[in-house]
Design goal:
Structural class: alpha/beta
Shape: globular
Oligomer: single chain
Number of strands: 8
Helix content: 10-25%
Strand order of the largest sheet: 4-5-2-3-8
Number of helices: 2
Number of domains: 1
CATH class: Mainly Beta
Largest sheet: 5 strands, mixed
CATH architecture: Sandwich
Distance between the termini: 44 Å
Radius of gyration: 15 Å
């Protein structure tokens, strides 16, 4: 009997700037076993919130995509909400941090942290 388990892929895009930032954060942590996990959870003033964090686990049903050595993983429940979304990193006087441009978000709150 052969194992035919394959890891699914997802439609989340990671810009080169964001990939470089993730790579530098992982290097500063001295870790090469972590992935960037992107998830959608209930909450926030618009109904759903984004979560971005480093995770060493790969769970059943996770979708994985590699961006030149930076692995981005999305759980199977979040994949439809994040299809076509782009993760970028801003470093300006006005804003610093990861941003998510999501074409699936019908509306978002003023703070940009949640959507519906």
């Amino acid at each position: 009997m052969t194992d035919t388990t394959q890891t699914a892929t997802h439609g989340v895009n990671l810009t080169e700037v964001a990939a470089d930032k993730v790579r530098s954060l992982l290097e500063s942590e001295g870790r090469d076993d972590l992935r960037l996990r992107v998830a959608v959870q209930p909450g926030g003033c618009s109904g759903l919130i984004y979560q971005l964090y480093f995770d060493e686990r790969l769970l059943d049903g996770d979708a994985l995509r590699d961006y030149d050595g930076v692995e981005v993983v999305v759980d199977k429940m979040s994949v439809p909400y994040l299809e076509g979304a782009t993760i970028d990193f801003a470093d300006t006087i006005e804003k610093q941090g990861f941003t998510i441009d999501n074409p699936n978000a019908g509306s978002a709150c003023a703070c940009g942290g949640s959507f519906s």
